[in-house]
Amino acid sequence: MSNPYLLGADLSYVNELEDCGGKFYKDLQPRDPFTLFSDEGSKIVRLRLWHSPDWTTYGTLADVKKSIRRAKGNEMAILLDFHYSDNWADPAHQIIPAAWSGITDTNVLGDSLYNYTYSVLEELYSENLSPEYVQVGNEINSEILMEKPTAENGPTNWERNAALLKRGLQAVKDFNEAKGLNIQRMLHVAQPDEAKEWFASAAKQNLSDFEWIGLSYYPNWSEFDLEQLSQTISFLKNTYQKEVMVVETGYPYTFRNFDGANNVLGEGSDLTGYPASKEGQMSFMIDLTSSVIKGGGRGVIYWEAAWISTPCKTQWGTGSHWENAAFFDAANGNEALPVFDFFSHNYQIIDN
């Protein structure tokens, strides 16, 4: 019996990596990564979308379309991650796209966000590429659509922040009604440590018309262990009556660096009981998923599981900053690692 949970991977980098010559292997045979993930039990693919990046040709709508076709061709659902930025959006960087820079009127800016969200969904729909899930923002711990990094702007203006997020959510709702679809909407916050306070602030602004809470959980940046993560998921689910999913996580299978790009998960990013080894990575993912399920969560998505080392350049180096935490063994010709088993593990099915 197939488990009912949404287990998958963010595969946003794959097109770029393949264009740089990257190849993926299972049992020494080259494999299409989207097909491999599907065959191994992945049910969902997360894809990031930047507005108008001027530093890369990837992460654009054209690139996302290509990935959606590949994922849907392998019968995997899509979680479309609107960054609402021209570059990486995270808790400290929610930088407004250049196209909207200088718009100070919240209503006008909200209209821009609404129209952009709706038009993207319209274009995808016209090509039979509609996502099943949509993130309205990425790691939106701080105020969205800011001119400068958060540290330079002070505390969140929640009245403005909620008004803008509501416009993004409304765009998806209106699109659903117009097309007879049921695209699920998600708000995504980094780390369970901050989630209770964030969603409490959101509730005070009546920011409640969405279906999913998404969390990032990287243990080296969190004070919470797996049990506390589970408890937080249970609290969020029961308090706000939302489904909950971990949409970003990662764990190293080695601390070795295989290229000129420094590793994000370096020495000290492992946990007691889960060594930075092939087995440790697999055990962590299985136990993490079990903890999410115990708390009533419905899924786990691994961040950039296919970000292998290639001659591709990033903004910070040449290669991959994640090859030591990917699902492929950089020391063994990018052979698939045991961590793939987390997709097909026989988890206890809990009716929450």
From TrEMBL:
InterPro entries: GH (IPR017853), Glyco_hydro_53 (IPR011683). Its EC number is 3.2.1.89. It comes from the Bacteria. Pfam families: Glyco_hydro_53. Signal peptide: none annotated. Keywords: Glycosidase, Hydrolase. GO terms for molecular function: arabinogalactan endo-1,4-beta-galactosidase activity; glucosidase activity. One of its GO terms (biological process) is pectin catabolic process. It catalyses: The enzyme specifically hydrolyzes (1->4)-beta-D-galactosidic linkages in type I arabinogalactans. The keyword Hydrolase applies. PANTHER family: ARABINOGALACTAN ENDO-BETA-1,4-GALACTANASE A (PTHR34983), ENDO-BETA-1,4-GALACTANASE (PTHR34983:SF2). Belongs to the glycosyl hydrolase 53 family. This is Arabinogalactan endo-beta-1,4-galactanase. It comes from Jiulongibacter sediminis.
